[in-house]
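Long-time lurker, first post. I've been practising inverse folding by hand and with some scripts of my own, and I keep getting stuck on stretches where the structure tokens seem ambiguous. Below is the full token string for one chain I'm working on. Before anyone asks, I'm not after the true native sequence, just a reasonable design that respects the backbone. If someone could post their per-position residues I'd love to compare against what I wrote down in my notebook.
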């Protein structure tokens, strides 16, 4: 087990280097350091001298990937890519282009992101599995057919419709909860109810259909038919056998959501004015703040890799046949 974890961590470094290089290439294909300076200083009446000063203060006056004017290893190390990338691997995110401390911003903004993402993840998972189990219990009936139709309808509607519709009906007409904003402590709950509800409802379609497919496939296997032949009720068969033996694909699907628990929901946070990491990333992209963008992409990649490792380890808990050999 220990050897497996170490090996997976070592494999993660080339992946993180590749992700960081791709982020760097995509960002600077669209923006130049002059564009970034002009965006931060103001588009109008900006002199080249002020832009040069801004770039020098933030290390953007160097070569991007290869410094042909330097000597020896400095050709590769005295560059924007090396200078901005090396510190990420020790989780020193530095300062944003506007001078803010990125690590401090992440520590503050991660809590609103967790407050909205964790309920959506936990409640949404329970609702999707329950709805899928209900459809499988009444499979090949009108209840199953109605459930599938409902899932398809929910999947076919854009999440923006749920956000705008929820804000208009529940927030504006019924005035049950605020449309946007955020508060401190328990006062934040009233601001989270609507986005959490929308996040759960908008995910029911895809989630329930996927779990229904898993459960139906498992329910058609020989050992399930044998369990029924022994006299077990359909409820016992579904919960004691079908659900238990589909835990590995369920865990695999759940790991995809793990980075969003910390990184936040980009759309929900932006529309509801929640000061989380999702809106933080969107604001950085709009402001062409490369320091924040690279930090958030790198952090998301690290969290995703950690999630994959934890998922592999959890396989051994739900299925004793699975072993992680070193």
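-- Answer (accepted) --
I ran through it position by position. Result:
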């Amino acid at each position: 087990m220990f050897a497996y974890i170490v090996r997976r961590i070592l494999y993660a470094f080339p992946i993180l280097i590749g992700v960081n290089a791709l982020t760097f290439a995509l960002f600077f294909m669209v923006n130049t350091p002059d564009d970034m300076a002009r965006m931060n200083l103001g588009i109008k009446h900006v002199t080249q001298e002020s832009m040069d000063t801004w770039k020098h203060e933030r290390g953007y006056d160097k070569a991007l990937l290869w410094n042909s004017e330097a000597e020896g290893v400095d050709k590769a190390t005295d560059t924007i890519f090396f200078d901005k990338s090396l510190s990420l691997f020790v989780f020193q995110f530095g300062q944003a282009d506007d001078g803010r401390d990125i690590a401090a911003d992440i520590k503050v903004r991660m809590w609103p992101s967790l407050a909205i993402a964790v309920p959506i993840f936990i409640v949404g998972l329970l609702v999707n599995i329950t709805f899928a189990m209900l459809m499988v219990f009444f499979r090949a009936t009108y209840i199953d057919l109605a459930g599938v139709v409902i899932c398809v309808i929910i999947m076919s509607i854009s999440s923006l419709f749920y956000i705008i519709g929820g804000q208009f009906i529940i927030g504006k007409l019924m005035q049950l909860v605020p449309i946007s904003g955020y508060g401190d402590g328990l006062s934040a709950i009233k601001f989270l109810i609507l986005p959490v509800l929308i996040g759960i409802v908008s995910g029911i379609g895809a989630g329930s259909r996927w779990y229904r497919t898993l459960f139906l496939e498992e329910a058609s296997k020989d050992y399930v038919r044998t369990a029924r032949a022994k006299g077990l009720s359909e409820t016992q068969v579904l919960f004691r056998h079908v659900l238990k033996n589909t835990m590995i694909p369920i865990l695999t699907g759940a790991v995809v959501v793990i980075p969003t628990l910390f990184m936040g929901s980009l759309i929900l946070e932006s529309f509801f004015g929640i000061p989380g990491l999702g809106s933080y990333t969107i604001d950085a992209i709009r402001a062409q703040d490369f320091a924040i963008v690279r930090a958030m992409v790198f952090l998301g990649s690290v969290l995703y890799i950690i999630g994959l490792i934890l998922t592999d380890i959890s396989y051994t808990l739900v299925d004793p046949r699975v072993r992680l050999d070193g």
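A couple of notes from the structure itself: The chain has a mean pLDDT of 87. The chain has two domains: 2-90, 103-286. Happy to go over any region you disagree with.
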